[in-house]
Amino acid sequence: MKDFFSNPLIVKEMRERFRSKRSFWILGTYLFVMGAILLGFLYITEMNTYMTPGENRDMFLMMAAIQYAMICFIAPALSAGAISGERERQTLHVLLTTHLSPGRIIISKLITSLAFIFLMVVATLPLYSFVFLYGGISPQQLSLFVLFLAMNIIFFGALGIFCSTWIKRTSVSTITAYGLAFFFVVGTGLLCLFIGMLLTELYPDKYLGDEVFNQLGLQWLASSNPVYVMLSILGESIGPAIEPDVTPWLFFSVVYLILTIVLIMWSTYLLHPVRKRYWGWKK
After folding, report:
1. Which DSSP string corresponds to 2-60?
2. Which of 111, 127, 133, 221 is the residue whose CA sits 20 to 30 A from 257?
3. 188-194-197-199 Cα dihedral, nearest 10 degrees
4. pTM of the shown model
5. pLDDT in tens, 162-174
6. pLDDT exceeding 70 applies to what percent of the chain?
7. Cα 209 to chain center, whole Å?
């Protein structure tokens, strides 16, 4: 912790990000919009009826969908220019001459890029007090959902850092990060449906209905899709009925944690100025 708080890169980036008026205006506007949507939804849906606590789950699903869409849209963009921006400002070589190792630079950039979005997620937690009263969800579901959001933020941040280190231009890096994020969020689900439908057409006597999606490989592919995992945490379902042999959110967390570590290590390798013998890899 002493090294963390004495890291000059983290201190500098945090001061620049959190001391600006724009950050407070963005956070205030986001909370105002989320609160307005929540109260407006309550007013419209329960305007002519009595509100019974525990029977209205649509409010929680709406807030969860909005918050996850916000993470998918903001997290890759915040980190996609972390390294490429330094390269465009011609300050990356100066940063590499400091006592900070490439690994500490990558971790520092990842932390400072995602600190604000973590603040936005934490700041919206008091709004879920309405959900506890009227949404019909359990504290365990909310806890798993917050952990799910945190895992997605870290993964998308590591994905953006990797694209920023790999690609020199920030604009191209951001587009690439959005494309890869789209594949993980939407493409994995479509790929699972395509493979399942293809197997059903090729072997109609072997697979009837949605039985094909209970194959172990398709279960793993479905459990790696964030939308499917989020809906399973919220107790909802979409698409074919799948009876997974493993808990989807647990499998998702392990897989995406491994991918995050791989992306951070790969970014560190790409950032290192001398790669010939770094970690035993050849240039």
Report:
1. HHHHT-HHHHHHHHHHHSSHHHHHHHHHHHHHHHHHHHHHHHHHTSSSPPPTT---HHH
2. 127
3. -90
4. 0.85
5. 999 998 888 899 9
6. 81
7. 32
